[in-house]
Structures are given as C-alpha cells and as structure tokens.
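Hi Y.,

Following your request, here is the sequence exactly as I used it, all 131 residues.
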Amino acid sequence: MVTLPPATPPGNGAGSGIEPPSPTELDRARALLHQQRARSAAFASARALFQDPAWDILLGLFVAYEEGTPLTIDAVQAATGLSEVTIRRWLLTLEHRGLITCWPHTAAWPQRSLGLTDEALTMMLQFLQEI
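Below is the corresponding structure, written out as tokens. Let me know if you'd prefer a different format.
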C-alpha cells in the first residue's frame, strides 16, 4: 500500500488555525493581466473579440503605480499590442473622464508619462478588494 503525504504540511493550512495570506491588490491585478494575456494567446485568431482597451490601460497603470514604475504611452502601446490610433483614442477618453493624467504636454506624444488619478486609484482598489 502506498501512503501519500498530506495535501498540506502539518501545522499549515486547513485545521491549523493559520490562514494563508490574502493576495494583495497588486497580486490580483497581476493575475488579471496574466489571465488577459493567456486568453489573448489562446484565442489569437479571435483576439479582437476580447479587447477591452480602457480596462487594459487602467489595469496596466495600476500595476505600474504599485510597482513604482512610470509608464509612457509607448510602453502602454507595447504592453497592450494596440494600435497607436486605438491607444490615442482611449487615452484621450480616459483623460477626459478624469481617470488618468498624461504629462508633460510639451513632450512628444509617445514619450508622455501616464498615471492614474486619485479617483481612478480609489476605484481600482475598491474593485480589486472585491474580487
């Protein structure tokens, strides 16, 4: 007869009273980004059906904020794989809605830095805490 080890080590997990740490909002955002990339790869021939540029941009900016990494428009375009026209349209929409900031306005469009507004950051945190 073969004896299998317990599913969780003794003293950890179920029945021990010790709960594993909850994922942070950053962990959850990274998981969502990973899921989106995996979905895009799995459905490569139908990728356009699953595009959500505004959400992809907001999620990427949240991760960048949490990691302390500034993002430029070029970097967002490279990360999302969206066309320059699509990126420009959505960035202008998100900025007009007060969800992102884009600076400096004197820089060439692709080199401008992007960030979430306080309002968008609050909304992202509320959402990520709920999932």
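The chain has a mean pLDDT of 86.

Thanks again,
Q.
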